[in-house]
Structure to design on (336 residues):
């Protein structure tokens, strides 16, 4: 670690170590090059025994992997990152901390300054762990979706399948076509997918569950459900001005409003085409149609899986984005 003993580096580091919070400074390999007295006090580790070790010495195994993934993604791009870690002190006790890691360049060397704030000291009820936050978000969206569609006893199964299929579609697309899709975005779209048809709560039952062919007037009524859904969601958003749901509701709004748009512009309610359709809506559109095809409905029998997959293939470039169809169909066939 001799390269970090140069005077400009030692001086710059000393400024960070003078902070009142627990602080570590690590190199590009995430090895600890220094830590302050507060860090020693909180963790129980002496500076001299951790210098040269990797920063992961405190890992408890309880911090979600997606937290580490987002941290690595940000730091690799040269961006600061903040999040919550569940670490373990030297005595074995768990330590919940909020950490901000900031990349800095000192005398030509890239370093990372980590500032830890102890969450164990805040008043009970003020701190919600990331895992708990994610669970709350998912459950709130599920309750909202189910409460909007209580007339259909089969709806919970459909919504659960749409969520599962959305995850399959997103992860297959990420692996084969767009590695830039973040874990946070994938999780948000999966959660939002359950909300796609909440606008159907405003459609008369005689039309919604009609066993025969719809008239043009009835079809027009059905096609208003995305806008009804947006109106419902806007009312929820206005009453629930909470950061816990802000991003989830924004993506839900996109899914609700645009999941019946088609790649060739023949969909509804706005006739959007191609890349003008938000990506999350393109995904949910695809999986919603697939589940509808393989499920029994009042107006149709369930299709065999392979027939439904072939239909999706036939609609590439018409109803659906071709690359999404390719990755989704391949993933479902590979799962057999």
């Amino acid at each position: 670690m001799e390269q970090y003993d140069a005077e400009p580096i030692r001086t710059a580091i000393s400024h960070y170590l003078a902070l009142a919070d627990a602080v570590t400074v690590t190199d590009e390999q995430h090895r600890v090059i220094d830590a302050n007295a507060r860090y020693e006090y909180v963790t129980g580790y002496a500076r001299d025994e951790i210098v040269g070790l990797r920063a992961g010495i405190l890992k408890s195994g309880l911090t979600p992997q997606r937290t580490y993934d987002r941290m690595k993604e940000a730091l690799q791009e040269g961006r600061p990152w903040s999040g919550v870690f569940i670490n373990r002190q030297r005595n074995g006790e768990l330590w919940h901390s909020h950490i901000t890691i900031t990349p800095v360049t000192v005398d030509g060397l890239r370093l990372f300054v980590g500032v830890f704030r102890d969450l164990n000291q805040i008043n009970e009820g003020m701190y919600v762990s990331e895992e708990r936050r994610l669970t709350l978000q998912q459950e709130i969206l599920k309750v909202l979706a189910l409460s909007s569609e209580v007339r259909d006893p089969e709806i919970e199964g459909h919504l659960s399948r749409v969520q599962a299929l959305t995850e399959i579609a997103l992860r297959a697309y990420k692996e084969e076509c767009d590695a830039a899709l973040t874990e946070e975005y994938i999780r948000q779209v999966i959660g939002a997918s359950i909300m796609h048809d909440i606008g159907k709560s405003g459609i008369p039952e005689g039309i919604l569950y009609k066993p025969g062919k719809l008239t043009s007037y009835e079809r027009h009524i059905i096609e208003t459900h995305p806008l009804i859904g947006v109106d419902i969601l806007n009312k929820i958003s206005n009453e629930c001005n909470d950061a816990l749901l802000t991003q989830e509701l924004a993506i839900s709004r996109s899914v609700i409003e645009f999941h019946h748009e088609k790649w060739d512009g023949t969909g509804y309610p706005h006739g959007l085409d191609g890349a003008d359709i938000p990506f999350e809506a393109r995904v949910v559109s695809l999986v919603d149609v697939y589940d509808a095809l393989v499920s029994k409905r009042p107006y149709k029998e369930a299709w065999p899986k392979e027939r439904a997959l072939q239909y999706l293939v036939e609609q590439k470039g018409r109803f659906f984005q071709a690359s999404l169809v390719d990755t989704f169909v391949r993933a479902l066939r590979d799962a057999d």
In short: The chain is about 50% helix and 10% strand. The longest strand covers residues 94-106.
